[in-house]
Specification:
With 122 residues, this protein is α+β, with helices and mostly antiparallel strands. The chain has helices at 9-14, 54-60, 63-79; strands at residues 22-25, 29-33, 41-47, 89-91, 107-111. The longest helix is centred in the middle third of the chain and has 17 residues, at 63-79. Bound molecules: adenosine monophosphate (AMP).
């Protein structure tokens, strides 16, 4: 069960109520710089549709939305100043255990330094 909060901050960005530093925009997808970057390159890719998490989007988005989102994420990777062969990390947090802060599905694309282990070893 995915209950979407239309007042979440990314919904407000999509409605133009809050500014963002856009990297790329398409009919179904928006990519913009994270306001608190955790690496030299930190971009968020979000669908324009009202999806809460990765599994919500993957299960319920149309084929057009799914394709547009992933093609846009790929274009963002190509556009960013990622040193050749040095790679990046694409991650998405979901829910309480994933420590998701903004309940609108988003993919983080991080690059520009060695990013450490995937999760804290606690
Ligand atoms: P998550 O913890 O996966 O939900 O990540 C939410 C991300 O959204 C964090 O990295 C925040 O820095 C970022 N964020 C929150 N508000 C804004 C905003 N207004 N513009 C850009 N990024 C934001």
């Amino acid at each position: 069960m995915h209950i979407y909060d239309p007042q979440n901050i990314f919904a407000r960005i999509l409605r133009g109520e809050i500014p963002n530093k856009t990297v790329l925009e398409t009919p179904h997808t928006l990519a913009f710089h994270d306001i608190h970057p955790q690496a030299p390159i930190h971009v968020l890719v979000i669908p324009k549709g009202a999806y809460v998490t990765f599994d919500h989007f993957a299960a319920e988005a149309s084929a057009e939305e799914l394709t547009d989102f992933h093609r846009t994420a790929a274009k963002v990777c190509a556009m960013l100043d990622i040193a050749p062969g040095q790679g990046y990390r694409a991650i998405t947090n979901a829910g309480a255990h994933g420590m998701q802060e903004v309940p609108h599905y988003h993919m983080h694309i991080l690059a520009g330094r060695t990013l450490g282990h995937m999760i804290a070893r606690s």
